[in-house]
Write a structure and sequence with these properties.
By secondary structure, the chain is of the alpha+beta class. It has two domains: about 50-60 and about 165-300, no CATH class; about 75-155, Cysteine proteinases (Cathepsin B, Chain A, Alpha-Beta Complex), CATH 3.90.70.10. About 50% of the residues lie in helices and about 15% in strands. A hairpin with a 3-residue loop joins strand 4 and strand 5. It is globular and about 65 Å long.
Length: about 300
């Protein structure tokens, strides 16, 4: 049996997020509320002296599984891999129930032919649909060191309307309360100074096999994506609640998103150039300082006394 699933496309999504969005749409649900906590920025202070500059960035706790369940009625079950047989049984059961299975975060299994012993799946990072023999599939699991897979189930109705005022207050409480510590924009400002003094090109970028897997690039990309995906949540609420409450802040989020993306591109450019001149350091420093005002404006919107 094979499910006729269309893979969701958005360049700002990582494989895990893209798989969840694909399954949600297949189940005739939305998914945008799962990103309601992704606007964040903080500096990790524990073991600070043991971290390089890139590792100090903390893009936040995104809680995707919590909110896809709360607002869209879809539960993501994380199952530890124990044996090929148990995985096969799960895939057969789920596919027969008309629901795909995500293996690790890069394979979305959409069908299985028990007679031919073939597996139909999407390789998420390349968007490629493939059909492979079951034995090759299991060898791939072992060869890639895959230790988990994910099933999906509908656990409740989808919220047909989300209160914009609640979203406002939730975000205000999450990032603007005294308990949340120093405001994110202040931490961005602090990070700019730390970067300028402490960033070491030779240890953080120079010899990396994959620049996108370096902490400095990976975390800044997540910061940028967080602004894009949070904006997606606000756009979704605006659409279903017929409100213009978030129109202004959505534009500010887009500006911040693009500025963080540009900062990331400067690190990638330096990596490919094979050097990190003082002019590059100063340019990145100035661009991080520049985004502080955008982050402060977003913070200011949610820190108002009322919507």
């Amino acid at each position: 049996m094979k499910l006729d699933i269309e893979l969701y496309h958005d360049n700002s999504f990582l494989c895990y997020e893209r798989s969840i969005a694909t399954v949600a749409l297949w189940l005739k649900r939305n998914f945008e509320m799962m990103f309601m906590d992704v606007w964040d920025f903080s500096i990790l202070v524990d073991d600070k002296e043991k971290r390089n500059v890139g590792q100090l960035i903390y893009p936040g706790e995104w809680n995707l599984e919590k909110y896809i369940k709360k607002y869209h009625g879809i539960q993501v079950n994380n199952i530890k891999f124990t044996s090929n047989n148990s995985l096969l049984e799960t895939i057969v059961s789920e596919i027969n129930g008309n629901i795909p299975v995500m293996v690790d975060d890069d394979w979305l299994v959409t069908g299985i032919d028990e007679e031919k012993k073939e597996v139909h799946l999407f390789i998420i990072h390349s968007s490629q649909p493939v059909i492979i023999p079951w034995e090759e599939f299991t060898r791939g699991i072992k060869g890639n060191g895959i230790k988990e897979y994910f099933t999906f189930e509908i656990t409740g109705d989808e919220s047909t309307c989300v209160d914009p005022d609640y979203m406002f207050e939730h975000t205000k409480e999450r990032v603007c309360s005294l308990e949340s510590g120093k405001p994110g924009y202040e931490q961005v400002k602090e990070f700019a100074e730390i970067f300028y003094v402490a960033f070491d090109y030779s240890t953080e970028l120079k010899d990396a096999e994959d620049v996108y897997e370096t902490p400095i690039v990976k975390n800044i990309l997540d910061v940028s994506r967080g602004r894009k995906l949070f904006r997606m949540t606000l756009e979704y609420i605006s659409r279903i609640a017929h409100t213009g409450l978030f129109t202004g802040v959505q534009k500010r989020l887009e500006t911040a998103e693009n500025k963080w993306l540009f900062i990331m591109s400067l690190f990638i450019k330096a990596y490919h150039a094979g050097n990190f001149e003082n002019a590059t350091r100063m340019k990145i420093y100035r661009n991080i300082k520049d985004v502080v005002d955008d982050e402060k404006n977003i913070y200011g919107f949610f820190n108002k006394n009322q919507p």
